[in-house]
Amino acid sequence: MTPIKTLVRRTVPxxxxxxxxxxxxxxxxxxxxxxxxxxxxxxxxxxxxxxPSLNFYGSPGLIDLPSAEMxxxxxxxxxxxWFAGISRYNMTFQALPWLSASFRYNGxxxxxxxxxxxxYDRGFDVRARLWRERRWLPEVTLGLQDFAGTGVxxxxxxxxxxxxxxxxxxxxxxxxxxxxxxGLGWGRLGSNGGIATTGGTRPxxxxxxxxxxxxxxxxxxxxVSPFAGFEWQPDERWSFKAEYSTDAYVTETRDSDVxxxxxxxxxxxxxxxxxxxxxxxxxxxxxxxxxxxxxxxxPKHPPTPMAVPAxxxxxxxxxxxxxxxxxxxDWAASETKQRQIRDLAAEALKADGLVLEAITLEGTRAExxxxxxxxxxxxQAAGRAARALAQTLPPSVETFRLVPVxxxxxxxxxxxxRSDLEALEFDPDAPDALFAATGISEAGPLPPDAVxxxxxxxxxxxxxxxxxxxxxxDPEQPFRIDAGLDFAASxxxxxxxRIAGAIRQRLxxxxxxxxxxxxxxxxxxxxxxxxxxxxxxxENLYVSRLWKPGRNLYARASAGLFESMYGGIxxxxxxxxxxxxxxLGMDLNYVVQRDFDQRFSFRDYRVLTGHASAYYELDRxxxxxxxxxxxxxxxxxxxxxxxxxxxxxxxxxxxxxLTNVSAEDFGEGSFDKGFxxxxxxxWLLGKPSRSSFGLxxxxxxxxxxxxxxxxxxxxAPVRAAHRRSLEEQRARFWE
Length: 735
Description:
Blueprint: H1 3-17, E1 76-83, E2 86-96, E3 99-113, E4 116-131, E5 139-145, E6 155-165, E7 177-187, E8 196-198, E9 222-233, E10 238-244, H2 250-253, E11 265-272, E12 277-284, E13 288-297, H3 317-320, H4 335-351, E14 355-361, E15 365-371, H5 378-392, E16 399-406, E17 409-410, E18 413-417, H6 418-424, H7 430-437, E19 439-441, E20 451-452, E21 459-474, E22 477-492, E23 497-509, H8 528-531, E24 536-550, E25 553-561, E26 566-575, E27 582-594, E28 602-617, E29 622-630, E30 636-645, E31 651-659, H9 663-666, E32 672-680, H10 681-685, E33 692-697, H11 715-720, H12 723-728
């Protein structure tokens, strides 16, 4: 195979996972904005029914077949389906209004292939809407199913769906709706009832392959079959479905004895138990019963409304500073008066969960440097800080310069006029008007006449928190997990310095019973079973320093035990202008592999690793990152990452890494790839918090393309305080 073809085969599937970086296809000028699950033209007539239901593959569809519908933008769905000993665990994310992606983990009992009693398989799907439903035209979608797996469920399809209200059909005045779906399928969806052949013969299931690469020359090749079905929703709770399936289940019925395929007709009933939970029961292929459970979440709709104490009102100075003497600047010459004002400001900030680090007071200006341990939104924290100053500073102070601080380092400066705060508090256009009048610039060095808080350094903190450490996709047991407690402590002797560590106590788990590594590369990550043998471990212990070496520059130096597998020394530099979407960084790490007991001893493996990184903030909350350099196994290459982060902190992303390690040496999966998600605690609990929990899931954990995990990385906290983030969250300044 030529190098170019190899690159295409390895790159295309991973790039499809990240297609959401591209803007959506241009809509015709005459099309009205989409306002609901139906067409633009019909939207005013449609009743508010639940989002599209999902099929056995976790995508919008009927039962085993897809439909052309799309979920609401940003929707995240987790589904489980089962019939005839075939189980499918699916995760789907609606990355854009016209694009969704899915990851699936399948188990097929009694397949009698490759020596496993249950054959497990992983796969990715991607779907793109070609055009929306209009008055007479159906919605049409193109789908690629299992496009980056071993091919057991590989299929391609075009599908169309048209929706009709019951009233329009003369079936009464209720909220009922009929959905008709039809399409053409190849691969699995072309294995029954074929009407033509395109592109020649298509190879069958290639389950012995390592997966991860796809043969693009097989797409839309082989037998093509028409499929169809309908869904009737009499109300917002119930749904009845029927379909003609073109999946003959050749592998499961002709090559094995999983179940008996007697009919192409499937029937089902579903019940919308709650806004987020949907249940279904089905009769499939004339011989089997099936079940599904569907959970749908949307970052824009938290389960618990946010309960945040109302901010203090901004009382105009004209209401309380009624004499000329009140506006005098003489107070600025008194150190005693400045300390009194500092203490008042510190108390006001503390009442809102913020911490005063330093304040510089002049007759008409004040610069506040503050920490934000409570609010996820930097804009919300800035609004609370501005109100605290308006409460406590003398009326002669007109300009507030707000500087959020991370580990003693100023991140940016937002300069606002006090008179704008007073005038705009109840203005309906306040977010846009105030942001337009706000100057955002480099934080700069700490002014020499700044008055520090008297209670910040040295600082000591402790915490106890639960942890989980999962391991995925062992053929003998697909999901393993360890759980326990982390006992953490940190000490900050001066601004920018931090000494931190954590002791981990496993309380329960079975990761230690997983399969041993078979990697031909240095075992930089695949010895996780060996590391899981010990119950009490030292998770990390390190010292780090953060500082600003120059304009638009941020730096970090760290030494110690960074994570459970590696310790060493690390340095990082980030160039990130406050008003730019672009950031450039570089990190260099010399690390040694830790012993399996995770105490203070090391193994005989050490490596110099590091990367040059480019970061770019796209529209709609997308963040693009490209890294190039040397990885832990000594391999060279690059990583492409795309995340979508919502204003409330909910994050979903995907990544892939290509290095000079061949697919054969890399092993199962061919190259490193996966997806990540993070759910903010405040989104779940409705209380302000900067904490979150999440997972990074790889179809296969291998040793190629792996990085060391170093605490206190620079980009995330720096970006959060810069112009782009503040602009996207400008409305939260007033919350």
